[in-house]
């Protein structure tokens, strides 16, 4: 169970973290690469769970205070390798050597880091080496300081050999991913259109924007609600916080929707559309009135209907379903709200580095 608990913790924690970082990741991908493929989404999710798994397996389970013996630090980076030689002197398979297994696992633990640095961020061996060393050093220092002072002393050994082999793992991962990165970069260059500044909007892009809109409202309202509740708890106590529970939900949700309204009235596009670089093309005047229509038939109307008591709240589900269907059935994937407001949409195209830049990003000497 002790071996499964860190992994289970990483998975359970990863789900809400993924929801929280989804919008920034989408916005970053569209601005840096002009799009967001399912492959890269999968890679980002894998990176998130890898980071959480790395944290969980190197620091968890946390011991009960007073239930552990303080441990020191191993400052000789060759000690782990001498342990391998000592155990091997007794004969037997190298694979079965416990000291060798420990070193090999520490190398393998950081191989994915080098792969992610190469494939997701387009950086080579130099950055992978630095990333591997910095991440490993952060983990070792966290162990050495007893979780930065949470415990009176270290409950896991600070080992300089781990710094070396973890960094080596990141380098191995970067080198292993180099052929794949180069092939992907050349394929992306072949499909790039350097003369385009805008283009058609795909259904996937529109749906991604809608998901971002819903998350933006939900996360903003949740963050505001937590902040207000904490403030009331500190200033007035638990009873006052509980008595304001319903009002807090109403006001924080209203504030989150108001941010969407400001975005639509000022630009004609929602936060999600800005994230995926979807730009409205307005054909009706006065613009402010049709922007209100766009808001009411879209994210604003959906949120308002969802706040109504049942069974009226079911109208929010009907509106959401109609909006999704409209993405596939309207010309140019405009969607229901844009059709109601007489808007068309176009996707902005960001500059994409040329083939030589992609090749440099995949070169093993690139920093």
TrEMBL record:
<feature type="transmembrane region" description="Helical">
    <location>
        <begin position="39"/>
        <end position="58"/>
    </location>
</feature>
<feature type="transmembrane region" description="Helical">
    <location>
        <begin position="6"/>
        <end position="27"/>
    </location>
</feature>
<feature type="transmembrane region" description="Helical">
    <location>
        <begin position="163"/>
        <end position="181"/>
    </location>
</feature>
<dbReference type="Pfam" id="PF04892">
    <property type="entry name" value="VanZ"/>
</dbReference>
<feature type="domain" description="VanZ-like">
    <location>
        <begin position="48"/>
        <end position="178"/>
    </location>
</feature>
<feature type="transmembrane region" description="Helical">
    <location>
        <begin position="103"/>
        <end position="121"/>
    </location>
</feature>
<protein>
    <submittedName>
        <fullName>VanZ family protein</fullName>
    </submittedName>
</protein>
<feature type="transmembrane region" description="Helical">
    <location>
        <begin position="130"/>
        <end position="151"/>
    </location>
</feature>
<keyword id="KW-1133">Transmembrane helix</keyword>
<feature type="transmembrane region" description="Helical">
    <location>
        <begin position="288"/>
        <end position="305"/>
    </location>
</feature>
<keyword id="KW-0472">Membrane</keyword>
<feature type="transmembrane region" description="Helical">
    <location>
        <begin position="248"/>
        <end position="267"/>
    </location>
</feature>
<dbReference type="InterPro" id="IPR006976">
    <property type="entry name" value="VanZ-like"/>
</dbReference>
<feature type="transmembrane region" description="Helical">
    <location>
        <begin position="215"/>
        <end position="236"/>
    </location>
</feature>
<feature type="transmembrane region" description="Helical">
    <location>
        <begin position="311"/>
        <end position="329"/>
    </location>
</feature>
<keyword id="KW-0812">Transmembrane</keyword>
<dbReference type="InterPro" id="IPR053150">
    <property type="entry name" value="Teicoplanin_resist-assoc"/>
</dbReference>
């Amino acid at each position: 169970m002790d071996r499964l608990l860190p992994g289970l913790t990483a998975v359970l924690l990863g789900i809400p973290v993924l929801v929280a970082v989804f919008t920034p990741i989408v916005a970053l991908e569209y601005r840096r690469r002009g799009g967001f493929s399912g492959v890269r989404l999968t890679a980002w999710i894998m990176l998130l769970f890898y980071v959480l798994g790395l944290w969980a397996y190197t620091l968890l389970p946390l011991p009960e205070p007073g239930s552990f013996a303080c441990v020191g630090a191993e400052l000789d980076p060759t000690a782990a390798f001498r342990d391998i030689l000592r155990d091997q002197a007794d004969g037997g398979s190298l694979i079965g050597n416990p000291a060798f297994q420990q070193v090999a696992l520490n190398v393998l633990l950081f191989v994915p880091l080098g792969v992610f640095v190469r494939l997701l961020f387009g950086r080579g061996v130099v950055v992978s080496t630095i990333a591997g060393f910095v991440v490993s050093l952060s983990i070792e220092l966290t162990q050495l300081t007893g979780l930065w002072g949470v415990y009176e002393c270290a409950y896991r050994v600070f080992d300089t050999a781990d710094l070396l082999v973890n960094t080596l793992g990141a380098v191995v991962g970067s080198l292993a991913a180099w052929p794949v990165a180069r092939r992907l970069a050349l394929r992306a260059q072949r499909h790039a259109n350097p003369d385009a500044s805008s283009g058609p909007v795909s259904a996937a892009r529109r749906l991604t924007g809608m998901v971002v809109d819903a998350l933006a409202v939900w996360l903003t309202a949740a963050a505001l609600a937590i902040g207000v509740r904490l403030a009331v708890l500190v200033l007035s106590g638990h009873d006052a916080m509980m008595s304001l529970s319903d009002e807090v939900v109403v006001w924080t949700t209203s504030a989150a929707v108001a941010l969407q309204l400001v975005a639509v009235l000022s630009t004609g596009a929602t936060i999600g559309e800005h994230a995926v670089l979807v730009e409205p093309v307005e054909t009706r005047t006065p613009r402010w009135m049709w922007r209100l229509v766009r808001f009411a038939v879209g994210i604003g109307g959906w949120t308002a209907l969802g706040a109504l008591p049942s069974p009226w709240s079911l109208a929010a589900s009907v509106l959401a379903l109609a909006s999704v269907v409209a993405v596939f059935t309207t010309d140019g994937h405009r969607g229901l709200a844009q059709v109601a407001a007489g808007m068309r949409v176009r996707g902005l195209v960001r500059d994409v580095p040329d083939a030589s830049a992609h090749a440099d990003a995949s070169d093993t000497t690139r920093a």
